[in-house]
Structures are given as C-alpha cells and as structure tokens.
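I hope you will forgive my troubling you with a question about protein structure. I should value your view on which stretches of the chain appear to form regular backbone elements. Here, with my thanks, is the record as I have it:
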Amino acid sequence: VQSLATAFQRLLLAREAANSAEILPTARVTVKERISEIANLLKAKPSILLTEVIENESSRFVIIVTFLAVLEMWKHERIAVKQESLLGPILLERGTRWQEATSEGEVDLY
C-alpha cells in the first residue's frame, strides 16, 4: 500500500508541475464512477498500467478519487496490484474475486 501511495504522490507532483500555469475547474467524479471506469478497462484487457487510468487526468481531485477507487477494488479483491521494482510501473490486474463482481454487474458496495 505504501508504494502505491508513493506512486500516486509522484503522479500528483508531476501533474502539478505540468499544469502549474493552467487554472481548470474542479472535476467532479465519485469513487463508484472511477471503479466502473477501471472495471471497464479491465474488461477489455486482463491488465492495465496505472498510468493508463490517469494519463488524461489533469485534476488533482480526480487522481485522488482514482487512488481511493484502486484501494477499494484491491480491498475487495476485484483487482490485484503489482509493482516489480521500486519506482517501477504499477500494474492493475483482474483480482481473485473479479468474476464474482463482474458477473453480478457493478456492485453497490461503493
């Protein structure tokens, strides 16, 4: 969990540096919506890089909500989170309970 938090911190800092001159309205998104988006990406392919999930996000709020969504999905074993090396890319894969959640549609636990 600590390496995941550190990775998100690095991503936030990188986004802030890249977008420091831009003032954008705050995007509104829920954890449930981000879970649904991540689940849809993982339906299309069995694993994705975390950077793919947030590559087009410029809002700090959306990135934080994404972090919460990843933690929630990981807690319920819908996804597995892997990182081969320190500061390496973070891979999100279908978890051991992926089928349970996807066969019931989107779960209302979130």
